[in-house]
Amino acid sequence: MYVAVLAVILLAGLSGCATVSVTAEVDSASTIESYDMNISTSTTVYGLLERSAEQDGYDSLEDAMSAGGAFPEEKFEYSEEINGRDATINVEFSNINATTLPGVAIQEADGELAYEDTTFYNASASTAPSDAEMGSEMMSGFVLEYTLEMPGEITNSTADKVDGNTATWTRTGGDAYDNTQIEATSEISSSVLSTGFGVVPAVAALLVIGGLYRRSSR
Question: Is 19 within 8 Å of 42 (Cβ atoms)?
């Protein structure tokens, strides 16, 4: 995920109370149909995020989350809600190429799709006991809920739960921010009417099947 989003997640997590919910839907090897991130935190942290965005040269938090307008309006949607001491930030990307989101990768091989999101994983994070303990205490209120929907049945993953083509991860504390490996492999849909099959071959196949059926019924 891009730098602005990572900064928001980190600051929200360091506040001691934040829930990040991600819902990703993969359409094909090159397209992410939707990537929706919802951050629930306090208005205090929201104010810090706004000031941080302005100090970095952005007009607003929304401007920072969109990487300064790098994403077309039809592919990026931002909303926020303030309710008393609670603040909710929602960012949604739709119908974008997988390579557009740093940290997200999709590979196709041997009839399967492999999805990876390293937004919440840092291989170089300190493993020193003192640092780990400090990080755990600071991020104790951090909660990550990640739901991934693949185009076919999931055959392998690091998820806590898998149901057909849907995988879910639920993590808490410091490890949730820098030690959550989001990885899943699924079958590729074999429907003859799928985008990869092509419209013309699909119609031809249906005509052939129809012709064979009529011949056999005579």
Answer: no
Output helix, strand, coil percentages for the chain, rounded to the nearest 5: 30, 40, 30
User: How are beta strands 142-149 and 18-26 bridged, if at all?
Assistant: parallel
CA distance 11 to 18: 9
Instruction: Please give the helix or strand (H or E) that residue 87 lies within, else none.
Output: strand 86-97
Which residues lie below 8 Å from residue 140, measured CB to CB, with a gap of 6+?
16, 173, 174
Number of Cβ within a 10 Å radius of residue 101: 19
pTM for this prediction:
0.77
Residues in the chain: 218
Bridge partners of 106, per DSSP, are 115
Residue 179 CB contacts under 8 Å (≥ 6 apart), including other chains: 120, 121, 122, 125
Cα–Cα distance measured from residue 86 to residue 68, given in angstroms and rounded to the nearest whole number:
26
> Can you name the residues that pair with 108 across neighbouring β-strands?
113
Alpha-carbon distance of 3 to 119, in angstroms, equals 10
Contact in structure between 63 and 53 (CB atoms under 8 Å) = yes
Tens-digit pLDDT profile for residues 81-123? 999 999 999 999 999 888 888 789 999 988 899 999 998 887 6
Categorise residue 171: left if φ over 0, alpha if ψ from -120 to 50, beta otherwise: beta
Measured in whole angstroms, how far is the alpha carbon of residue 20 from the centre of its chain? 11
